[in-house]
């Protein structure tokens, strides 16, 4: 606990410099963290969008595994005008913590593949492989890049509240420049560039005199920047944190200072 607190204190001056101001470009460190994250993380609104995508049959010469630089053969409709495809595998399903509504599915990053030619079986060359490619891995169009130079903090954003539901890199304690998955998206009014305040729920303690339980007030614990929105989910980057954040922490629209 003391080590975590020390890390947060050391990060505090740097974290405050990361907070964007209206009509100002993002800090270079923030831009780099977003670009690195988006290279390896992606969400699809509907699982069937992944289940019906083109898929890899085998590597060249009939091998069943593909590695960086190898050719692979795929079945499904691929666009020859699309020079590169993302190679993905079905990952975690996200559901609303309160209603259990299906919100989307994570497409786990396997790498990218360069289109070579089409046929009954299309051929691609693997690039940037993060792990062995398997038969059945899906091929998706590469997502358009976020134009970080145009990512501005909106003024007078509508009030929205929700929860952090995942940390894609698998940690339990969330800190500055970590990316998180949020259970709200475009349909809820979230927009890219929006700032959110993370709220830590007050702990329940026992009053030593009355011997009755008492819940302490909730308190602000950090700031998130929304940098990629989907229909029902979004990705946010932690820009500041006064406490260690965690999955299921609540967030709400940040108040804009004049």
TrEMBL record:
Classification via InterPro entries: Bact_Kbp
Signal is among the record's keywords: yes
UniProt keyword Signal present: yes
Source superkingdom: Bacteria
UniProt keywords, alphabetically: Signal
Naturally occurring in which organism (per UniProt): Pseudomonas rhodesiae
Name listed for the protein in its UniProt record: Peptidoglycan-binding protein
Signal peptide range: 1-17
